[in-house]
Design brief:
Elements (H helix, E strand, L loop, with lengths): L1 H76 L9
């Protein structure tokens, strides 16, 4: 008798709670998907910001290198300012 009541309770509980658990699972999946989408967007924005900063730094380094190269070439093409007198 007890065994029959336990089996009946398990079967009826499964039948009654199955739609509720499916709905809860779907809602949880949507919540987690929305959260991960926002996190992915924030991560992508941070990566793009870092990439832009790196581009700026590389551009600045290129400008400095060009300046130094021009500065080092200048004495070769510049005339002697002291007139050659020692």
């Amino acid at each position: 008798m007890v065994f029959t009541v336990v089996i009946l309770a398990l079967v009826s509980g499964t039948i009654l709670l199955f739609p509720v658990t499916r709905r809860l699972g779907a809602a949880l999946e949507q919540y987690l998907a929305a959260g991960s989408e926002e996190q992915r967007k924030r991560r992508d924005e941070r990566v793009m910001d870092e990439l832009q900063a790196l581009r700026s730094e590389v551009q600045a380094l290129g400008d400095r290198q060009d300046f130094v190269e021009r500065l080092l070439e200048a004495p070769k093409t510049r005339p002697d300012l002291d007139g050659g007198e020692a």
